[in-house]
Amino acid sequence: MEKKISVALFGFGCVGQGLYDVLNHSEVLQANIRGIGVKDRTKKRSVDQSLISYETKDILDRKDVDVIVEMITDTEEAYKIASTAMRNGMHVVSASKKMLATYFDELYRIQVETGKALIYEGSAGGSIPIIRTLEEYYDNELLSSLRGILNGTTNYILTRMELENKDYGVVLKDAQDSGFAELDPWMDVAGYDTLFKSILLNVHAFGVVLKPDDVLNLGIQNISFSDIRYAKEKGLRIKLIGSAAKSGDKFRVYVMPRFVKQDDELYKVLYEYNAIEVEGAYSCKQTFVGKGAGSHPTGSAVLSDVSALTYDYKYGYRKLKKLEKNNAGKNPGSRVLDNDFAIKVYIRFTDKSELKDIEIRNVVEEYKSPEVNFIIAEVGFKSLSTLKGNKESKLFVCAVE
């Protein structure tokens, strides 16, 4: 049954301000704003100043707040807010995917101990309600794989490079100027944003809790128009994809650019849109599409979470609990990761010495010219880990279907 709840916000950027307006003026959602936690004392804000607090403790110690909505970028501070709020008897809504992925195990234990809800639809998939779908629709489904375009910024860049015949640097600058990319885009373009989201989706799809350091993520930061041109000549598109698939009793989980064929549903997903494909034993493949970049898609997901709490909603974590029960009360985590397999990839390089740390098992195709050099080869997946987060490497690696 719907009830009226009292809410406090941490973070008052575009999403926070939009959420404040909706909560204050909604005739459907029953919620009162009790406080807004911010850091910058010099910034003027067009809200009742009595709501503004510069000290985290002042809000977390209040007894008249039911729900904390946390939307800040500081990972450690976000964890402190979320964990303290639950221990103080408050439910939490969060959109901080890095914090959630980094501290998921700890946050799950606190939920169990306190009985309080932590909901985070806005942390993965933009406007796509994928976490609740995995929780409710697929809770008893034997899923075999989940993959998706989870970062609107990189998909926007890749789309414009292809459709406008422009190089990476030009499109990235345009994306930054138009608000589709951060001034420091590393988390997006190096695949970390997709990594954090993939980890959260993996929890609800398969029940496995992974740490960001254990999962390979390669990005598009080294892409050039020559890679786009090669894909176009072959009738393919390049997409940055987070994927998780069962392999026997283990899972293959990673983030990597991939050549996508025209008959693939992800081929059609352009600009800032996200898409997630779920494949099950009984439901076959289903694809969910929605906007993934911008304040409004995230804001709509956060609003949905706040609304769900008026009905006392919380995640059931059925697959996670079942997996822990089968493993003597512990989550198997990275022990169920399969990293010992061969993967077919396209690698563009300047000099072959750049490939020295990659275990090349079988070269399928090789091309050399004054402008571009690349190979298509089967390589040892584990050896690609040397490229994770490597800002010095100039290699562009792309999975081949």
Concise summary:
This protein has helices spanning 14-25, 56-60, 75-87, 97-102, 104-114, 130-136, 152-164, 168-177, 186-189, 192-206, 225-233, 295-309, 318-326; strands spanning 5-10, 31-37, 52-53, 67-70, 91-94, 118-119, 143-149, 216-217, 237-247, 250-260, 273-280, 284-291, 342-349, 360-368, 373-380, 396-399.
Description of the molecule:
The relative contact order is 0.14. The longest helix is centred in the middle third of the chain and has 15 residues. A 6-stranded parallel beta sheet has the order 3-2-1-4-5-6, sandwiched between helices. It is built from 13 helices and 16 strands. By secondary structure, the protein is an alpha/beta fold. It folds into 2 domains: 115 residues, NAD(P)-binding Rossmann-like Domain (Rossmann fold); 216 residues, Dihydrodipicolinate Reductase, domain 2, CATH 3.30.360.10. The model has no long low-confidence stretch (mean pLDDT 93).
Strand and helix map with partners:
Layout: E1 5-10, H1 14-25, E2 31-37, E3 52-53, H2 56-60, E4 67-70, H3 75-87, E5 91-94, H4 97-102, H5 104-114, E6 118-119, H6 130-136, E7 143-149, H7 152-164, H8 168-177, H9 186-189, H10 192-206, E8 216-217, H11 225-233, E9 237-247, E10 250-260, E11 273-280, E12 284-291, H12 295-309, H13 318-326, E13 342-349, E14 360-368, E15 373-380, E16 396-399
Parallel strand pairs: 1-2, 1-4, 2-3, 4-5, 5-6, 8-10
Antiparallel strand pairs: 7-9, 7-11, 9-10, 11-12, 13-15, 13-16, 14-15
